[in-house]
Each structure stands twice: as structure tokens, then as C-alpha cells.
Amino acid sequence: MEDIASSANLDRAWKRVKANKGSAGVDRQTIQAFLPWFAGNRDMVVTDLLTGRFRPSPVRGVQIPKPGGGVRQLGIPTVLDRLVQQAILQVLEPLIDPTMSASSFGFRPGKNAHQAISQGQRHVVEGYGIVVDIDLEKFFDRGNHDILMARLARRIGDKRLLRIIRRFLQAGISSSRRPKWRACTMRTNSQQLNESGPLPPETAIRSLTASPPWTDYGRPMRAMAQWREAP
After folding, report:
1. How far apart are CA 45 and CA 55, in angstroms?
2. Which of 1, 36, 112, 186 has the fewest CB neighbours in a 10 Å radius?
3. What is the pTM of this model?
């Protein structure tokens, strides 16, 4: 936790959050308004992180139309929560990413969809001529928090950090920009994962394992198989 709350790590996280821009969360605080606020409250935030008392706000719910019809529920975290998530990610990613399967390309640094396609093409050349297209339906709506946290706990020994990550997962969604204490606007879900912040998608993908000849890019996966005639 000390590495996450360090000045150098928080400064680097802020640069990333600022560069990504993005809308305000439930507290209506913009990127422009955050910096002077953080300058006056930085010590408090650091103390809350180091003691494990940090509590994220709910995300502001927005619905994005899908090309094929229907909508996708997304949530916009506050600027502070995006900063803390990014700070956590910067410390965890170098520790966990090397343990991931070489066939996993989603939400990983230096990985992209083109590399996933190239690997799929190599599998075809190797004789895997049958392709099974798999997509985990509503994965971020149904991701089990307990399973995810249990897998993270195998690699993270700091209970303060585990508590904060779980709070991010359980922060809930606000249907409007009203303050978080207005419980009537809140919806919580013990299995929902917010796709918009940097941390929940990262931790969710880390909870999945893929081994060749699987190729995955986030939720969608391709399974390659060889066909053998029966004797």
C-alpha cells in the first residue's frame, strides 16, 4: 500500500487520468476542478489509503446504445476514484501481468486485437482448423466478487489493499448526479463490475485463465481444435 500511496506513483497516476480526460462522476467534480481540491486534501487521501479507510463513491450510471439494439450500462467514477484506481493498477500490473497466459490479449499493456488475430492465424497453420467463438454474456454484469477477490488474495498479501479493491467493486451505481448519500438513487449488485474505470476490468480479466490453443481478447474468446477422423 505504501507504494500505491507514494507521491511518485500518485503523480504518475494523475498524469494518466488527466490525459484521459473524461466526465465528472456523482460529485460533479471535473478534471479541471480536481487538482486544486487534491492539493488541499492530498494528505487526507494518502492517510485514508495507508490505513485502509478509503471509501470510493458510487459510479454515475450512463446507458450506451448497442449497435445491434439494447443498451450497455456503464458507470463513470469520480476523478478521485479514477486516480486511486490508476495508482493501484500501476503497482499491481507489473506483478500480475507476467503470470498471465500468452494467449490473453485483453486489457494488457503492449497487447492488442491484431496480435490476437495473428496468433489465431498461427493456430490455423498449425492444424487447428475448427474455431469455436465464445463470448461470456453480460460478464461484467455477473462477475462474482468473491471468486475474483479470492484469486487476487493469492497474490496480494496487503489486506488494506484487498479491502479497498472490494469496496470499488461494491460501490454501486447512481442513476443520476445526485450526491452519494441519496440512497434512493443507488443500485448495488454483488456481482456487477464497472467497465469504465481502469481497475475493475483489469482485475476481472486477471481472474480468468486461458491456455493455448485459446485466444482471448477481454471477454470474447476463440477456441481452436484439430479434427481427427474416427478409426
Report:
1. 10
2. 36
3. 0.72
